[in-house]
Amino acid sequence: MKFPTQYQLLQRIASLVSENRELKKRYQTLSDSYARLADEMENLRDQEPKPKNSLQTVRFEMATILFAEVKGLSNIMDSADMMGYMDMLDQYFMRFQEILKKYGLVKVRSIGDNYVCAGGIPRKNVTNPVAVTLAALEMLNVIDSGQQKTWSVNIGIHTGSVIAGMEGEEQTTYSVKGDTVNVVSRIASVGKKNTVIISATAYELVKELFDCAYTGRLPVKYQQQLELYKVKGVREEYSSGEKRRFSNEAFRTRFLLIQFGDLQEHILDMLEAQLPKNRFYHNVKHTVDVVTESELIGWAEGLDDHQLLLLKTAALFHDTGHIFSCDGHEERSVEIARETLPAYGYSAGEINEICRIIMATRLPPKPSDLLEAIICDSDLDYLGRADFIPVSNALYEEMKAQNKMTSLNEWNKMQLKFISSHQYFTKTGRNLREVKKQEQIARIKQLIENNE
């Protein structure tokens, strides 16, 4: 196995540290927003609820709109079998609805032979441009493979902010408005027969997974000209089928890695809101640290994308059980993972693997394979870091709050015994942390001597 050079490793560390800092800033902002929203909800509790059928509007900063012009209806208005053709159009739209359900999209409206749907509403997510583009290719395939060649479809896709209105007793009827909606119909209108045309905004978000070709610019009122791209198909390495309109397992893994951002936001929000206040060490910061370190070590150890996905997901969930209890928290973390991950598209086999990796974090660590070794090294990464003392003190305060520790000197003695017998299991962990860990041992011995 070829390992990365020291320079490449340092570059990766710098990149992950930067991402880590940005993520911490982001979640501080989210935490502040959560507190403000809690105050607002408290003020609204005494107000009368809205009628069940009232329209509720929500702004979504990142939604993807698909506008499909299904052509053929205007050519058959004088046909004796017009009702048959209308039935066929209904059948196409029913197939479209199945595709929407498959990719978690919502129908906005269908007027005549136009069909509009959206991704990223009502649940915000970062994967909606990819999901909508996949759905578009499948819709194209439905029309293109039909027995009646009278029909064709032009599909336009644009990603941007929208105002979504949700109606009905269960808020399941949707309408959208905004510049994104106005632009997408024009994108569809410039496409040729049986094509998928996407805006530059959508292209930047899907270009790693789809093969696209630049087609020109579209004048947009009050804006600069919008660059457009034709989606030729799923990239060859991620596709199945000759026309490259369907994805394979490699694509699915890449999709789940993109979706990991949504999953991570959900779990960190949950930890922020539900962890006991005395979790001074096992908190959001620790979880972010372990996820970041798992990715770094996993990359350096040569894991493939699917292995990295399983490892990062296990790292994200490994301490969620602290919401309920410190003792036996690994088992509770597994329960939370099993409850949460099916909704994010993880298979039963993948969930079993993730749960196995989570259980490897029980002390004392006894990893049985590389993924377990990486999460063990990531979980105890602080033992060989420069910030060992403040992190160690946070763990001491947590144990003290649970009446599991009486004095700092007692804690230092326990730490010395633990660190002296500890080992890093991966080559990367040893290279990055072992030297510093030996320095920590010397520092703790000095602290104990000073307090004897």
Word description of this protein:
With 452 residues, the protein is of the alpha+beta class. The chain has 2 domains: 6-37 and 252-451, Hypothetical protein af1432 (Orthogonal Bundle), CATH 1.10.3210.10; 56-247, Nucleotide cyclase, GGDEF domain (Alpha-Beta Plaits), CATH 3.30.70.1230. It is 53% helix and 17% strand. It has 14 helices and 10 strands. It has helices at 6-44, 82-103, 128-144, 179-189, 200-206, 249-274, 284-300, 305-317, 329-340, 348-359, 370-379, 388-401, 408-421, 427-451, and strands at residues 56-71, 106-111, 114-119, 152-167, 173-177, 195-199, 210-218, 226-234, 239-240, 246-247. Strands 1, 2, 3, 4, 5, 6, 7 and 8 form an 8-stranded mixed beta sheet that branches. β9 and β10 form a beta hairpin.
Descriptive key words:
single chain, 452 residues, alpha+beta, Hypothetical protein af1432, Alpha-Beta Plaits, 2 domains, 8-stranded mixed sheet, two-stranded antiparallel sheet
Along the chain, the helix and strand elements come as HEHEEHEEHEHEEEEHHHHHHHHH
Distance between the termini: 49 Å
- Architecture of the largest domain, CATH level 2? Orthogonal Bundle
Return the CATH class of the largest domain: Mainly Alpha
How many strand units?
10
The chain-level structural class is: alpha+beta
CATH superfamily of the largest domain: Hypothetical protein af1432
What number is the mean pLDDT? Answer: 86
